[in-house]
Specification:
alpha/beta; Aspartate Aminotransferase, domain 1; five-stranded antiparallel beta sheet; 14 helices; binds pyridoxal-5'-phosphate
C-alpha cells in the first residue's frame, strides 16, 4: 500500500515536472505547452541554451554551500575564482575586477571610476564623459546620461548629467564613421584636458538597431584615446561572451580598453551578474591611505553573489569544453547562408550580421532606404506573427533582431529562418 502510494506520488511528481518544464536548449514553452524557438536569447543573454545541466547543478551546489555574503569588506570563493578566470579571458592589461549585477551598473561603475581616477590623481579638470550618438548603455539615470537614442533618452534631459555626445552616423544610412573619428580627434586636440573618458559599444550598436561599424573604426577610436590620455570604456554587455564570434568584440581589432563592462552572458544568461574590468593603472589611482578619502565608494548589496558567480564559472567551463567560440563561427556562416534569400523580399533594406548578432532592417523602399513610418509598427507585427510560427522575437523599431542562443542547431536555424520569412511575408503585403 505504502509503496503504491509512493509510486503514485512519483507518477504525479513526474507529471508535474513534465508540465513544469518551460525551457530546454533553444526552446521556451508557454503555459499551454506550445513550443517556441527563443530567437533573441531572452533579451540577448542565453549562451549555451536554456536549462543547461552544468549551470543548474553548479547553482544548486553553491546554494547549499553559501547563498550570499557581502563583498563589502569580505570576499567569497566563487567570486575570487571567477575574477581570476575573467582576467584570463579578457584582453591583456585588464586585471582588476569589480562586480555588480546588471549591464547598466557595470557601465556606470566604469564611468564613475574613470571620472574619479582623474580627481584622485591631480587632474580635477578632466570631468567630461564622451559617448556616441546612437549609443545605449542601460536604463538607470547614469547610463541614460551617456545614451544617444532620443526615443529612450530625451525625456530625461533635465535629470541627467552633462556629457559630450560625439556625432556618429547610423552606419546603414551614412558610412562616414571614419570622418566621425576625425572630428572626435579634433575635439580632443582642443579639449582633452577636460575629458575623462569615451564610452562606446564596440563594433555593434545593439539597441540602436544592430548598427555595425566598418572594420577599423574601433581601432581608430582607441588610438585617439591613447594619444590624448582619455580612458576608453568598452561596453561589451551585449557583444561579450562569444556573440560576435570572439569572446569579446574588441578582440576583432586587437583593442585594449581601459575598462571593459560585461553582464548579460556572463552567467550564461541564467542569473543577474555583471563585472567591470579595469587596469592596474586605474586601480593604483584609488590606492591611498584611508584618511585621504579617495576610495571608490560604490557597492551593491548583491555584488559578487556566490551563486551567480558559480553559474558564471560553469558557463566559462562550458565555453572551454564545448569549444563554443568555434561553434559560433560555423553557426554564423550557416546562418549567413540562410539569410541570403531574405534579399529576395523587396522590403528588406539591410541584413547586418556579426557572429550570431543579426539585424534585418525592413524599409518602405530599398533604394532610397526610406523607413516605414513608426506608427505602422511593422517590426512589432512581424514579431507578433512569428509567435504563430513558433518563434519568439523582439524588434528594435523596424529592425528584426535575431540573437539565438550560441548553441542553436542548424535545424533550429532553418526553422527560425522559415518562420521569420513567412512572418515578414504575412505582415508586409
Ligand atoms: N549596455 C548595452 C550595450 C546593452 O545592450 C544593455 C542592455 O541591453 C545594457 C548596457 C544594459 O544592461 P541591463 O539591462 O542589464 O542593465
Amino acid at each position: 500500500m505504502e509503496s503504491n502510494m509512493i509510486r503514485l506520488i512519483g507518477i504525479l511528481l513526474g507529471i508535474v515536472v513534465l508540465v513544469g518544464v518551460v525551457m530546454s536548449g533553444s526552446y521556451l514553452f508557454d503555459t499551454q505547452g506550445r513550443k517556441y524557438i527563443d530567437g533573441v536569447s531572452s533579451l540577448w543573454v542565453t549562451v549555451h541554451g536554456h536549462g543547461r545541466r552544468e549551470i543548474t547543478d553548479a547553482i544548486f551546489r553553491q546554494a547549499a554551500r553559501l547563498d550570499h555574503s557581502t563583498m563589502l569588506g569580505l570576499a567569497n570563493v566563487p567570486a575570487v575564482e571567477l575574477a581570476e578566470k575573467l582576467v584570463g579571458i579578457a584582453p591583456k592589461g585588464l586585471d582588476k575586477v569589480f562586480y555588480s549585477d546588471n549591464g547598466s551598473t557595470a557601465v556606470e561603475i566604469a564611468v564613475k571610476m574613470s571620472y574619479q581616477y582623474w580627481q584622485n590623481t591631480g587632474s580635477p579638470r578632466k570631468t567630461v564623459i564622451c559617448h556616441l550618438e546612437n549609443s545605449y548603455h542601460g536604463d538607470t539615470l547614469g547610463s541614460v546620461s551617456i545614451g544617444g537614442i532620443d526615443l529612450f533618452h530625451k525625456v530625461y534631459r533635465k535629470l541627467i548629467f552633462k556629457t559630450h555626445r560625439v556625432a556618429f552616423p547610423d552606419c546603414y544610412r551614412d558610412m562616414r564613421a571614419f570622418e566621425a573619428v576625425d572630428a572626435f580627434e579634433a575635439f580632443l586636440k582642443k579639449e582633452h584636458s577636460r575629458v575623462a573618458s569615451l564610452v562606446l559599444e564596440p563594433i555593434v550598436q545593439g539597441a540602436a538597431g544592430m548598427l555595425m561599424w566598418p572594420a577599423g573604426v574601433l581601432k581608430c577610436f582607441e588610438e585617439v584615446c591613447r594619444k590624448y590620455d582619455v580612458f576608453l570604456i568598452c561596453d561589451e554587455v551585449a557583444t561579450g561572451f562569444g556573440r560576435t564570434g570572439k569572446m569579446f568584440a574588441c578582440e576583432h581589432e586587437d583593442v585594449h580598453p581601459d575598462f571593459l563592462c560585461m553582464a548579460k552572458g556572463l552567467s550564461g544568461g541564467v542569473l543577474p551578474l555583471a563585472a567591470t574590468l579595469t587596469t592596474r593603472r586605474v586601480y593604483e589611482g584609488f590606492k591611498f591611505p584611508y584618511q585621504d578619502m579617495k576610495a571608490f565608494f560604490h557597492g551593491h548589496t548583491y555584488t559578487g553573489n556566490p551563486i551567480a558567480c558559480a553559474a558564471a564559472l560553469a558557463n566559462l567551463e562550458i565555453f572551454r569544453k564545448d569549444k563554443t567560440l568555434g561553434g559560433v563561427r560555423s553557426r554564423a556562416k550557416y546562418l549567413s547562408r540562410g539569410l541570403k534569400r531574405f534579399w529576395d523580399i523587396a522590403h528588406v533594406g539591410d541584413i547586418r550580421q556579426r557572429g550570431l548578432m543579426v539585424g534585418i532592417e525592413l524599409v518602405k523602399d530599398r533604394m532610397s532606404k526610406e523607413p516605414f513610418p513608426w506608427q505602422d509598427g511593422v517590426g512589432v507585427r512581424v514579431c507578433q506573427r512569428a509567435r504563430d510560427y513558433g518563434v519568439i522575437l523582439r524588434p528594435l523599431g523596424n529592425v528584426i533582431v535575431l540573437m539565438p542562443p550560441l548553441s542553436i542547431s542548424k535545424r533550429e536555424i532553418d526553422d527560425l529562418l522559415d518562420a521569420l520569412e513567412r512572418s515578414i511575408q504575412d505582415s508586409i503585403a
